[in-house]
């Protein structure tokens, strides 16, 4: 009983390490990330790809209000998983830092530089009393001097660089798929196909253009851009991943019967 009470005390204190060196609130923030829908990043020789699961809770909800992919600068995109409000705060911070860098140095901010500025900001909330960690993980992808870069931020404030990664729900299963199918020599279109296939692997191998978001930053233009529904549908159809809606109709009938 005493041990349980002691653990609860460490749970409540973000600035207090447990005897085995853990910060429980940071670990709980990682659990919050796992409850968010999946986001995927893929680095290719031609650029970076960001793909997200934009699950809509109701047909009455406006799709445009579900934001999981964001433009931080002309050459940098960010995908998130976890608490949307926390992600919005970090995205706003990233955009301000990108503007500050442009005004101060007269050049676009580097992807690694921006990532570390964000993680430094996140880390402050792991050792300040009266605050909580950010319950969100970000995938930051962009181009610097013709080189694609792809990073992850963790609720602890630690940055990681990846060739391909996933955050959010089903992270382990998606990462296994990426490890098996990733090829460093693939081009940007192949990267989009891989990201969609990885996302479909945990969604019954079917996706709808309206239920996902895809963005790219290509080496040639170094410009962030999001794919239209028509472009997403073409990729899904080519890979035989397009949701025909038949299962959704069946589910609707079952729900009505229940």
From TrEMBL:
Residues 240-258 have a biased composition (Acidic residues). Keywords: Cytoplasm, Hydrolase, Proteasome. The formation of the proteasomal ATPase PAN-20S proteasome complex, via the docking of the C-termini of PAN into the intersubunit pockets in the alpha-rings, triggers opening of the gate for substrate entry. Interconversion between the open-gate and close-gate conformations leads to a dynamic regulation of the 20S proteasome proteolysis activity. Transmembrane segments: none annotated. GO terms for biological process: proteasomal protein catabolic process; ubiquitin-dependent protein catabolic process. It is found in: Cytoplasm. Its main location: cytoplasm. PROSITE patterns: PROTEASOME_ALPHA_1, PROTEASOME_ALPHA_2. The 20S proteasome core is composed of 14 alpha and 14 beta subunits that assemble into four stacked heptameric rings, resulting in a barrel-shaped structure. The two inner rings, each composed of seven catalytic beta subunits, are sandwiched by two outer rings, each composed of seven alpha subunits. H.volcanii produces at least 2 types of 20S proteasomes: an alpha1-beta proteasome and a proteasome containing all three subunits (alpha1, alpha2, and beta) that appears to be asymmetrical with homo-oligomeric alpha1 and alpha2 rings positioned on separate ends. The 20S proteasome core is composed of 14 alpha and 14 beta subunits that assemble into four stacked heptameric rings, resulting in a barrel-shaped structure. The two inner rings, each composed of seven catalytic beta subunits, are sandwiched by two outer rings, each composed of seven alpha subunits. The catalytic chamber with the active sites is on the inside of the barrel. Has a gated structure, the ends of the cylinder being occluded by the N-termini of the alpha-subunits. Is capped at one or both ends by the proteasome regulatory ATPase, PAN. NCBIfam families: arc_protsome_A (TIGR03633), PRK03996.1 (NF003075). Component of the proteasome core, a large protease complex with broad specificity involved in protein degradation. PANTHER family: PROTEASOME SUBUNIT ALPHA/BETA. This is Proteasome subunit alpha. It comes from Haloarcula vallismortis ATCC 29715.
């Amino acid at each position: 009983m005493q041990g349980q009470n002691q653990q609860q005390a460490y749970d409540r204190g973000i600035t207090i390490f447990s005897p085995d060196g853990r910060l429980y609130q940071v670990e709980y923030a990682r659990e919050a990330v796992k409850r968010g829908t999946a986001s995927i990043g893929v680095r290719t020789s031609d650029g970076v790809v960001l793909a997200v699961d934009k699950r809509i809770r109701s047909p009455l909800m406006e799709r445009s209000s579900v934001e999981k992919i964001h433009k931080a600068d002309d050459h940098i995109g960010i995908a998130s998983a976890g608490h949307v409000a926390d992600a919005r705060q970090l995205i706003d911070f990233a955009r301000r830092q990108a503007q500050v860098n442009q005004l101060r140095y007269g050049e676009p901010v580097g992807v690694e530089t921006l990532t570390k500025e964000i993680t430094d900001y996140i880390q402050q909330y792991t050792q300040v009393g009266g605050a909580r960690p950010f319950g969100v993980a970000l995938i930051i992808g962009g181009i610097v001097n013709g080189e694609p870069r792809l990073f992850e931020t963790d609720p602890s404030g630690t940055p990681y660089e990846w060739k391909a990664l996933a955050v959010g729900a089903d992270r382990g299963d998606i990462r296994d798929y990426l490890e098996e199918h990733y090829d460093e020599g693939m081009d940007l279109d192949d990267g989009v196909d891989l990201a969609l296939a990885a996302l479909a692997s945990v969604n019954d191998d079917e996706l709808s253009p309206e239920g996902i978001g895809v963005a790219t930053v290509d080496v040639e233009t170094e410009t962030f851009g999001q794919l239209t529904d028509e472009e997403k549908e073409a990729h899904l159809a080519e890979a035989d991943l397009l949701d025909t809606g038949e299962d959704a109709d069946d589910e609707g009938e079952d729900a009505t019967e229940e």
